[in-house]
Design brief:
Layout: H1 2-11, H2 13-32, H3 37-44, H4 48-60, E1 64-67, E2 70-73, H5 75-91, H6 94-105, H7 122-138, E3 144-147, H8 151-159, E4 169-172, H9 185-196, E5 199-200, H10 211-218, H11 221-231, E6 235-237
Parallel strand pairs: 3-4, 3-6, 4-5
Antiparallel strand pairs: 1-2
């Protein structure tokens, strides 16, 4: 793929630039839909006049639809973004960084999202999108999925596509009281289960307990059931932020 992209850039550089621009428009709509043209122009640092022509072209190709609340991708548009993801990763040089990280860390797979989430909040939504796609591709009906809390995990839950895995069980991998409810592991487990068409369990315990209290709670039948499912989880998804 890298060799093909390099050849295309030499032979038809305008084609690659146009493809990148239109992919970015479709991707931003996917991450923020429904979104108005003015908001999209601000996200892309483009003028509405320039964007209008691209939007009309993409609508004519049946890749996006314009509704009262804003623009959305059509199923064909969403599929195209999904198909182009690996191509664009190679184009922007991320695949080389992914290969380097795989080698340095000794792990089989790495996905790198470009950008700085400290200065651009949309980067976290893109991270949520690629993470949700990875999770969906590796889950099977009947699996147990364990999730932690935090803003990154909330973005993953937000971007999870609607599918149906009726025998999937999503459980919180940690407790938590006193945080924002949207970023609690219980809330994220509930949201993910709804998106994935499965069921969920709740884990009503504080994140930090003294040893004696922890052992006492672990004997509670409901807590014990969740802990047993956690020990046999097929996939655990967690952020790497600080858990205060």
């Amino acid at each position: 793929m890298k060799e093909l992209i390099a050849a295309q850039m030499k032979l038809v550089p305008d084609l690659v630039a146009t493809m990148s621009r239109r992919y970015k428009i479709l991707q931003q709509i996917l991450l923020n839909q429904p979104i108005g043209r003015r908001s999209l122009a601000q996200q892309l640092h483009a003028t509405e006049r320039v964007l209008r022509g691209e939007v009309e072209f993409l609508r004519a190709q049946d890749l996006l639809a314009i509704e009262a609340l804003g623009m959305r991708l059509t199923p064909a548009g969403a599929r195209l973004v999904n198909d182009l993801d690996p191509v664009m990763t190679a184009l922007n040089g991320m695949s080389e960084l992914e290969d380097l990280l795989k080698e340095r860390l000794g792990i089989p797979s790495v996905i790198v999202v470009p950008g700085d989430q400290d200065s651009d909040p949309l980067v976290k939504r893109e991270l949520g999108y690629v993470s949700a796609k990875f999770i969906q591709n590796h889950l099977k009906d009947g699996d147990i999925l364990a999730v932690t809390g935090g803003t990154t995990m909330a973005a993953v839950a937000d971007m999870m596509p609607q599918i149906r895995l009726p025998n999937l069980v999503v459980i919180p991998a940690r407790g938590g009281l006193g945080e924002q409810v949207e970023t609690l592991a219980n809330t994220i487990a509930s949201t993910m289960a709804a998106r994935l068409g499965g069921s969920h369990k709740l884990f009503h315990v504080p994140d930090y307990l003294l040893e004696e209290a922890s052992q006492s709670l672990a004997r509670d039948p409901i807590v014990a059931e969740t802990l047993n499912k956690l020990r046999t989880a097929h996939m655990v998804v967690h952020g790497i932020g600080q858990a205060m």
